[in-house]
Amino acid sequence: xxxxxxxxxxxxxxxxxxxxxxxxxxxxxxxxxxxxxxxxxxxxxxxxxxxxxxxxxxxxxxxxxxxxxxxxxxxxxxxxxxxxxxxxxxxxxxxxxxxxxxxxxxxxxxxxxxxxxxxxxxxxxxxxxxxxxxxxxxxxxxxxxxxxxxxxxxxxxxxxxxxxxxxxxxxxxxxxxxxxxxxxxxxxxxxxxxxxxxxxxxxxxxxxxxxxxxxxxxxxxxxxxxxxxxxxxxxxxxxxxxxxxxxxxxxxxxxxxxxxxxxxxxxxxxxxxxxxxxxxxxxxxxxxxxxxxxxxxxxxxxxxxxxxxxxxxxxxxxxxxxxxxxxxxxxxxxxxxxxxxxxxxxxxxxxxxxxxxxxxxxxxxxxxxxxxxxxxxxxxxxxxxxxxxxxxxxxxxx
Length: 398
Ligand SMILES: Cc1ncc(COP(=O)(O)O)c(C=O)c1O
Prior knowledge:
Blueprint (H helix, E strand, L loop, with lengths): L4 H4 L6 H5 L7 E2 L12 H14 L13 H13 L9 E4 L1 H13 L5 E6 L3 H8 L4 E8 L2 E2 L1 H9 L3 E6 L13 H14 L2 E5 L15 H4 L5 E6 L11 E4 L2 H15 L4 H13 L2 H26 L5 E2 L7 E5 L6 H8 L3 E2 L1 E2 L12 E5 L5 H23 L7
Parallel strand pairs: 1-12, 3-4, 3-6, 6-7, 7-8
Antiparallel strand pairs: 2-9, 4-5, 8-9, 10-11, 11-14, 13-14
Helix pairs in contact: 3-11, 5-6, 5-10, 7-8, 12-14, 13-14
Bound molecules: pyridoxal-5'-phosphate.
C-alpha cells in the first residue's frame, strides 16, 4: 500500500509516550500533566448532568464554531484579560492542539518557513510539521526570543508563521518582555506574517503580574491567540479556543468543519454549565497555590543537589523547570540510566533539528511532593554520575 510521502518522511514525535501514565516506582517529570487530585470532578460531573438533563440538544450535532453560550463565556473571559474578542471571533477547538493544526493548515505550504522558539513545545513541531515547513529555530533568552535573529530570519523571506509561547514558555518557563512583544509585532507588521500566540499557561502565574498578550497589543490583526481548558480545568475535556481577526477565524471554522465537523456538543455544554455555576478563577487560584509549592519543591531540591554549572530555571508560572547541563553532557544518556526511576523530556525532542543535547524539561505538576523529592534525588544522582564520568570528579556534587 502506498502511503503519502509526508507520512513516509515523518518521524514519531513521541507525544503518546509523553502523556502515558508513569510505570510503577517511576516518577514522571515527562508529560505536562495536571495534578488529577485538583480536577474539579464533582463540579464537572454536575455540569455534565445538567447538560444532559435539560435537553436532548446536548446529544445532537450543533456547530463547527462551537456552542454559542460557551463562546460567549470565553469571549467575556478573554476581554477581562484585555484580549479583544466577541462571541463570533472565538472558535472552540479540540484542545489547543487542534488550533495549532488548523492554523498550520491555513498558512503553510510545503517548504514555507515557520519561526519557532528553540527549545519549544514538541506538539507544535508535530502539528505544524504535518504541513512540511522549514522550521527556523530562534534561541530563547530569559526575556523571550532573540529578536535580532527573528528580524534576520524574516528579512531572508518566505516566513509564513511565527509560533511563540510568550507566557511561561514550554519548556523554559520564560516570559517574553513587553519590549520584545512590541518588537515582534512591529516585525510581524513589517513582513505581514501571522503570529501564533499559544497561551495555555497564562493563567498559571505563581508570582508577579502578567504582561499584556500579543493579541491585546496587536494593532493590525497579525495575531491568533490560542488558549485551552487543559491546564486550568482538565485535559480530558479536549477543549481549547482560538481568537483573532474575524476573517481568519471564519476560515478556521471552515477548516475545522472539513476536518471533524465540530467538537463534542455534550462536553461544550457541560463546561458551559460548569462556568455558569462555579467560579473558575477561584479554582485557578487553588491550582496556582498548589503548583507554586510543587515548583518550589522541585527547584530547591535540584539546587541543593546539583553543582552551579547546571543551570536550573526558577519559573514564575507554568508547568516546567528547565535544566541546562554543561556542554558535553547528553541528557538522553542520563535518561537511559535513570528512566526506571525517573523520566523527563530530553532537549533533543524540543528542537526541530534535535541538535541540542544538554537540556532537560521537567514537569512538576503531576507527581505529589514526596514523589518530586524522590525524583529530584534520583535525577541529581544520575546527572552527578554523568558529570563525574564526562567532566571529572571536581565538577559534580558528591
Ligand atoms: C504550549 C502548549 N500548547 C498546546 C498544548 C496542547 O494543549 P491541549 O491539551 O489544549 O491540546 C500544550 C500541552 O501541553 C502546550 O504545552
